Amino acid sequence: MGKRGEDKMTVIYEDDILNAGKNQVIMNNELMKIIIVPELGGRIVDAISGETKFLYRKYPDSVSFGPYTEYGGIEECIGGAPGTLWNTSWKWEQKENSVLLQAISKNILIRKLISLDESEPIIKIEYDFANLGNTFSKFTFGIHPEISIGGSHKENIYHIPSENLVMGTYQGPGVKKTIKPTEGWCAVTYDDKVFGQMLSEGVTDIIEVYYPRVDTHLVVQPMIYGIGVSPEKRAGFTYMVYMGEGDAEKIKQLYEERKAELTMKYEDFNKEEIPEELEAIAKESAQQRPEIIAGAMADIIKTHAKEMKSAQAEALKAHAKALKDVQMELSKAAKELKLEIKAPHIKIMHGKHFGVDKGEFKIDIPQIPDVGAIIDDAMKNVRNAIDENLKNIFKINTATQSQGELFAKMVSIEHLKGDVSIKGWDQDYVNYKISGSIKQDNNHVKFETNNTASFDIPDSVSEINLNFVKGNINISGIKSSLKISGVNGNINADLLIPDDGKIEMSLVAGDINLKIPKDSSCSISAINFVGEITCDLPLKKEERSKTKLSGTIGDGKIAIALNVTKGKIAIGYSDIG
What we know:
The structure is a single chain. The chain is an alpha+beta fold. Helix content is 15%, strand content 46%. The chain is built from 4 helices and 43 strands. Helix 3 packs antiparallel against helix 4. The model is unreliable at 1-8, 285-301, 339-371 and 385-400 (pLDDT under 50).
């Protein structure tokens, strides 16, 4: 066995009490016992108060799905979920009556000092984040308890103070919601037992309530979106979790009594505090290995620049062909109208119309996506993503496969090439599988993707924006305001009409196939300069020409605008609504 604390109330030792083939760290007092696995995310893998178990535990067994492996307990995530902490090996040591765990994620030294309260069954964790790098660092952090009081997560009830007290219980696997708390506590109750979390007021941005698809537990996760730390500084806060007799009112009372202990800090950091075992990683983070970054950046950007140059050339070629066809069509139309004009008289007016000098004849054409802007943005995104990855983890990987779930109200997708699938579904979170990167700012998530990508998006997402260079876009069952701008490819959309907003689709070269429900109420404007427009809908106030179609269905509240430079536009009734 290992070390034991001097305080008779707290015993700290090592033993393999879970038959895992390796020791765990056990903290025990008269009120509760917790089991810590340092080499597996430093997680508190189990906690027992009295005769009651409060946490779901799978360890030493596990269940894997996607990039994540489920072990149970209390773990942390930094950055986008699941992050890098859940399976990181933490260095641990005994500090008097506490256990100190330390790990490095990118350029941040993360420390948590765990102790047990002497008067209540409370775990107290002092979290500490020190910046080892040379630049300001800002990141998201979440505390992820996997709760199943008495082994009955479906009967556990969560309580979260918001504008009103939010209470809820099991609604099925995969259900997820976010709640903005107005106080620094939340609770889960069952059979006169309560699991209560407490942080200083204002620390938590949102609380995520989640029933994972493995259907074994409930997650009530405090999320902090903006921990910002300057070089040689440290930020920190206190977290407490109560597991014992009582109800939500007990946690509220404890929170008021313990407010003075729920502290926050921001202060200087002395690098001499870095443990010897982590010094090599710390130095590597601080130096940021400039020689590796420079060479890798040059190679990767060269590859992507060639790829983007090819996409740009193809897009501009399609654009030039479309403009040539425009001139031919106008010349033909002018000849039919017996207008004696020559091709040089044909010109672009205001960047949106083609016409002739005398003004007798004018045809609207679609507003063409800014090809250069798409390419420039894509290049900038690639540079930023590569730079960030190399600075932080020193791995060259320009097409990171990732899948996961997150909550958002607005979704933006910047796509280079390959097919994209977007489907509506009845959950309240975004499910994704991409090759690329993700950035989230509160309720807005931005995906930067290459190759095939797929998304399941709930009705709670109010707006979707997609810019793409090349590929086919397939959308079904979406009820969000939608804007798509592309260079080369087809858009196949079987949509629900949103309650608010608009639907816009614009292509340089390709076809748009749109289907909407029979009970839709909307106004439709379709422009196709070189190609046909077909519409099977009974439009009111219909106006039709060779290049343009407009009309309304119902009260025409929601506007639908479809623009193609060269291709086909087809509008019909939906198969799904």
